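Annotators were shown the component list below and the corresponding predicted structure, then asked to write short factual statements about the assembly.
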Amino acid sequence: MSGTYLGMPAFPKAAHEAVRNDTLRANLRHATHTIRDKRAVAVAELDDWTELREAGKQIKDHTLSRLDHYLVQLEESVTAAGGTVHWAAYADEANRIVADLVKATGEGDTGKREVVKVKSMATQEIGLNEALEAEGIAAYETDLAELIVQLGEDRPSHILVPAIHRNRGEIRDIFRSEMEKWGRAAPEGLTDSPAELAEAARLHLREKFLRAKVGISGANFMVAETGTMVVVESEGNGRMCLTLPETLISVVGIEKIVPTWRDLEVFLQTLPRSSTAERMNPYTSMWTGTTDADGPEAFHLVLIDNGRTDTLADEVGRQALRCIRCSACLNVCPVYERAGGHAYGSVYPGPIGAILTPQLRGTASEIDASLPYASSLCGACYDVCPVAIDIPEVLVHLREKVAEHGGPGHRLEKAAIKAAGWVLDHPGVLAAGERVAAKTRRLHPKKLRGPGASQWTDSRDLPEMPAEPFRDWWKKNRT
Amino acid sequence: MRVALFATCVNDAVYPSTAIATVKVLERLGVRVDFPAAQTCCGQPQYNTGYRRATEPLVRRMARAFEGYDHVVAPSGSCVAMVRDNYPRIGRKAYAEGRGSALTDVADSLVPRTYELTEFLVDVLGVTDVGAHFPHRVTYHPSCHGLRMLGLGERPRRLLEAVRGLELVELPGAEECCGFGGTFAVKNADVSTAMGADKVRNSLSTGADVLCGADNSCLMHIGGMLRRQDAPQRALHIAEILASTEEEPLV
Amino acid sequence: MTSPSTPRPTSSSTSSSTSSSTPSSLSSRERILGRVRAALADEPTAPHPARGYLTSHTPDDPTVILDLLHENLADYRALVHRAEESELPSLVADLLAKHGAASVAVPPGLPASWLSGTTVERRHDEGATLTPYDLDATDAVITGCALAVAETGTIILDGGPGQGRRALTLVPDVHICVVRAADQIVASVPQAMPRLDPTRPLTWISGPSATSDIELDRVEGVHGPRTLHVVLITEASARGERGGTTGGA
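Structure shown to annotators:
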């Protein structure tokens, strides 16, 4: 993944700041609660949601179980339709491929090389914009939220709405001060009305779309049997990037394949409802290779691994590869709502990020090792997931891997667990301990010190210890 | 019908009144209950923190302690969810690691016999009116594991609605996690506290004098925050409300 | 965990990056496929999906399906009109006039009669001659469609006769789309799939351009046409009670 996030503090440390940021908390609460209720309504409209969810899960599981076959089939289909397929094992390789392709197209009209981009998680994951910049190529984000993030020199905090942490007033301020540095300035007297902000983005980006020679996208789905690529969007910036430039480069994770054209009928029903709570998103583009006199003359598909095959090798963890990036799990997550997306230290925040990032990147860094613990295991994410990823199951599975690694904190924890395990396997010793706790209860302080204990008593009282444990009551009263 | 009480380690050590109340409710309904003394802990804290192998001796202990009982009843949604959802996983992983089927056998044996208290009352005994009396304004927090893993649904509410004198009031944002989450409460104390604070705010907004739940671990967290604020509301396990009668009221 | 952390050592991909601009960097292709095969070594193929979901959520009644399409299009702020074929020229003329359109882009194969009621400048796109800048300076576009989906309020264009290439319906700010109720409407997405040709470039349109990027609240009108008129061409008997014009915004 992108180097942007390396060196991030562990989740609890990052969240410590976020929960104290009142504006952030209010922005996130407002946005997630708005979409949460709407999603429930949109999903309830379909009587067969359970079956659609199950079918989506099974399509993805089947695909993953024969991924090599479907990748080869996809390559053949795309090539036969006039596209060119590239394979990139790692991020830096994908970036190299894209940069070379852009350079091969020659100069842009304004004298410098530039590309327009459709919002894409894959290109964020590999840090494509930064890599292109280093090669003298300007990459313009065209999705409204991505534009807000790019203009504000910010980081994305949500899969679907990367600027979810910003409210309308903050967005207006960013547009007013930053747009002119990138091109057309914000209109005079711009207010914070969402319609005016959207209009400002339309005006700012239009000139970039019209002159663009290269478009870069990801894809929501790739159909192996036909070679068809699918991009699902709302604003029309996707259509602009996919249609107007002469060259289109799509950078897509290898897990985005579905075997058949028909399979799309499942995801085109579940994705919009889960994502933006719409029956259907405003625009869906589907293209197969190139078409004469319609759209780009050259189409390149860059397939990226970048940790996906490692994830695939894990029998429990591989279900994360079913993800269709709808972000419903973020929107219902009580931890995400309070900690915000930046605390996850990855382009994939929230519950799905907490299981995807440590699998794609490994758990060597402080932030990645902390992600599997960034959940109360409440299960709301699993309930809403349209491909039934059991996120709590994978979180616990990954905790096991982190605990096995045994960083400094985990060695101490492991020893404590071992000691507790011994006591719990000796009911007599346990009972003796319970009695001591009960007898000394008047001496227990209200606040404790030391790791674990103070984290509890900083905000909560300890329960008062009973006069005797239950097992002693039982012995006296029922035996 | 041989019924065993699985008190759970938290109730045994910290909330014996909940386990006692469970015994009283069941006995009032004519059920003879045993408390097998070999029981300790289901292993949930260890398992959910990433120590699956350290959980295995406790899984085996559970099997020994409750061998021969028709039903195992626990006043804790999360401990029952541990047995029902995670024991099979522990068994499958041990099997996949080439360590035989002993743990899958444990899961196969325990899972169908293990019930959360409100499930046992409503589904097995077929009772919603347990003859309780509790003249208080009560709001109910459905803990996540009971709500989403066990699917307890309306069972606790139906039991509470049948309690004489009890006024049940709606908890805003009821289905949102309280932020306890086992070791999450200390590993991510800031977020846990922020979630708990919202739960407490919602709960106090109901004007109830009692916040009722079916999981004492969550109530330890919410109740601890209520006490820290000297709030005019206390957290109470549903078993204790169901055990309360006019003759023997809970005070 | 077997997965190493990033950044990957650059040496691990040098062999492929040297050939990266060739059509297929063989070594990375083989490496990825090899890793997939290793990851799935003992894995049985998961079964093909059970398709227990419905093929439609709507009664198989053309009037119900037409009304549902109308309702769902309007719900997402498309402006919906019903007309008989003979009324189309005057309706189109009215709509163009209402928007003050001086020019309209015309895709190849559009029935000439559709624009017979108006004198606005026609900009024909035979041979895809209109540049993006030409299109940006064009006020409106009128097309037919390949299919419409009632349950989702969607019209689908496939570049066939009377629809034009994709840029045509994207750059001008007003799009008038004509749907023949008799044979161009299906109830559901599963019913739409077999009627579409995946080898053609397809654009699914559900209302005008919109965004939820500001506070996750939906606002209409960003880069695509901000006004979408959908004209449902019905037989005289099928107009029912819902004749005339409805829609949001």
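Statements collected:
1. The mean pLDDT of chain B is 97.
2. Chains B and C do not touch (no CB pair under 8 Å).
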